[in-house]
């Protein structure tokens, strides 16, 4: 009778709650996680769905050769409006499941910045249009900063990075 | 019916009071049923025990509609019931409480008095012992290990902990004073509190005057935090929002007094039975969510969003 009840209502305290399967963890690691040792680093990867793990490990890692760098030009596709947004990556904030990046563009003579969270279900695609230091000349080398907030006050540097790109 | 009886008058006398119908002959004899333990159920007037957890950190989660919520991760660290308290107050009312202890400790670091107390409860020595007032029906057997399954995703909780200590702080930080101007002749007192009172009348400083002093390191209750996710394998409770205290601090987590306990009582009294529990919550583990109960239930449970999608434009 208890097994029939368990299969009929998996979670009797809430009919609309989502029931997720257990993630397989080795016993010695499970014991230390239950004591709290290394719990938050474990959750950094466990709370990221498998589709986004790829991005976290390549685009948003600190040392991967194909990582996203501040100063690159990207096109981001989202499920809600604006459906596509292109611009210069100003900053990358690495926080595991809470990783985000800020993209700046000038749209109809108005500077617009958007912060995109990598783990958001609405974020569908990130395409790197131009890596920093691709073209020669004024924006020849990689940026010497991790956060390019100075670009907010120098439109000429923005043009040097992102001018003339049909994204 | 007469045929079933024997013709012997004596035997007829003996058996005439017996049941001889066909239905009775075909009936299955009733076996003595084992005395069934009445399962305790949550009622709108019950107050359940709370648990002691550890604040492990914060992260973010996205719900089924795609909205981001900051969450705090709380972990139950071998939380066990050490006593059931019942005492009579001076006005003859009863006080009932469940005493709960968490976080194992070395025996050599525990006083003999506390060792005796833990031995009586048949529980190892613990770092923190706290009690939660309950109704008389919500007592939990001593020695039970509480689990994260005690909380239902979608319910609201109050979290109590000591806030981060900030040391001796000035009026601007402690009391949101505005300070003085940055220039225009202000000398050496840009962040000071200014005047402390009037003149000869009253000729003193009012008691309770807001002044610089120690800020933080006191008991703070954050109310009405929604439980977003429960993980029984790692004994984790994810609550939406911030919680007082540093990481790895002990926190007390209990059902929200205002949004759960009080609302349940008021709505039950008003016969609004659909509103007794929050949306999506049908029942609460009673008297407590234990490790045994957690083994029978799914390992990870998440709360759905109970509002219309914020991404859909309103008409």
From TrEMBL, chain A:
Gene3D superfamilies: 2.30.30.790
PANTHER family on file: LARGE RIBOSOMAL SUBUNIT PROTEIN BL19M (PTHR15680:SF9), RIBOSOMAL PROTEIN L19 (PTHR15680)
Cellular component, GO annotation: mitochondrial large ribosomal subunit
Pfam families attached to this UniProt entry: Ribosomal_L19 (PF01245)
GO BP, sorted A to Z: translation
Entry-linked InterPro entries: Ribosomal_bL19 (IPR001857), Ribosomal_bL19_sf (IPR038657), Translation_prot_SH3-like_sf (IPR008991)
Protein source organism: Neolentinus lepideus HHB14362 ss-1
Taxonomic superkingdom: Eukaryota
Protein family according to the UniProt entry: Belongs to the bacterial ribosomal protein bL19 family.
Membrane-crossing segments per the record: none
The protein's name: Ribosomal protein L19
Keywords recorded for this protein, A-Z: Ribonucleoprotein, Ribosomal protein
A molecular function (GO) term: structural constituent of ribosome
TrEMBL record, chain B:
GO biological-process terms attached to the record: translation
Keywords of the record: Mitochondrion, Ribonucleoprotein, Ribosomal protein, Transit peptide
Sections of the chain in a coiled coil: none
Superkingdom: Eukaryota
Annotated GO MF terms: structural constituent of ribosome
Xref: Pfam families: Ribosomal_L3
Region Disordered, residue ranges: 188-210
HAMAP family: Ribosomal_uL3_B (MF_01325_B)
Family that this chain belongs to: Belongs to the universal ribosomal protein uL3 family.
Protein name: Large ribosomal subunit protein uL3m
Species whose genome carries this gene: Neolentinus lepideus HHB14362 ss-1
């Amino acid at each position: 009778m208890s097994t029939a009840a368990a299969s009929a209502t998996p979670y009797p305290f809430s009919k609309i709650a989502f029931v997720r399967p257990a993630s397989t963890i080795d016993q010695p690691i499970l014991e230390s996680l239950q004591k709290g040792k290394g719990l938050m680093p474990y959750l950094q990867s466990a709370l990221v769905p498998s589709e986004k793990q790829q991005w976290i490990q390549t685009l948003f890692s600190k040392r991967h050769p194909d990582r996203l760098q501040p100063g690159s030009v990207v096109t981001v596709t989202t499920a809600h409006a604006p459906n596509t947004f292109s611009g210069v990556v100003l900053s990358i904030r690495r926080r595991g499941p809470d990783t985000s990046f800020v993209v700046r563009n000038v749209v109809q003579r108005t500077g617009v910045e958007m912060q995109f969270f990598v783990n958001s279900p609405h974020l569908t695609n990130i395409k790197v249009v131009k890596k920093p230091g691709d073209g020669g000349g004024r924006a020849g080398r990689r940026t010497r900063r991790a956060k390019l907030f100075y670009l907010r006050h120098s439109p000429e540097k923005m043009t040097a990075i992102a001018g003339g790109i049909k994204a | 019916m007469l045929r079933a009886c024997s013709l012997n008058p004596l035997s007829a006398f003996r058996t005439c009071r017996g049941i001889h119908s066909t239905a009775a002959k075909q009936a299955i004899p009733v076996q003595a049923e084992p005395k069934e333990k009445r399962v305790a159920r949550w009622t709108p007037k019950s107050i359940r025990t709370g648990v002691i957890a550890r604040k492990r950190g914060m992260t973010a989660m996205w719900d089924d509609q795609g909205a981001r919520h900051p969450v705090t991760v709380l972990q139950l660290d071998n939380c066990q019931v050490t006593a059931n308290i019942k005492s009579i107050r001076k006005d003859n009312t009863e006080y009932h409480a469940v005493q709960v202890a968490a976080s194992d400790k070395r025996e050599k670091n525990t006083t003999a008095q506390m060792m005796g107390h833990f031995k009586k409860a048949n529980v190892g020595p613990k770092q923190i012992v706290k009690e939660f007032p309950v109704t008389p029906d919500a007592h939990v057997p001593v020695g039970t290990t509480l689990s994260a399954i005690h909380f239902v995703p979608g319910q609201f909780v109050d979290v109590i902990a000591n806030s981060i200590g900030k040391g001796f702080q000035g009026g601007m930080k402690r009391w949101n004073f505005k300070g003085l101007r940055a220039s225009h002749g202000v000398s050496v007192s840009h962040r000071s509190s200014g005047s402390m009172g009037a003149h000869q009348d009253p000729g003193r400083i009012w008691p309770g005057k807001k002044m610089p002093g120690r800020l933080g390191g006191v008991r703070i209750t954050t109310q009405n935090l929604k439980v977003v996710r429960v993980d029984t394998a790692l004994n984790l409770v994810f609550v939406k929002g911030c919680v007082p205290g540093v990481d790895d601090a002990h926190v007390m987590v209990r059902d929200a007094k205002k949004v759960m306990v009080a609302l349940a009582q008021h709505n039950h009294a008003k016969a609004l039975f659909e509103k007794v529990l929050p949306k999506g919550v049908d029942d609460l583990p009673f008297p407590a969510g234990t490790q045994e109960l957690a083994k029978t239930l799914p390992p990870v449970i998440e709360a759905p969003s109970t509002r219309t999608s914020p991404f859909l434009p309103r008409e």
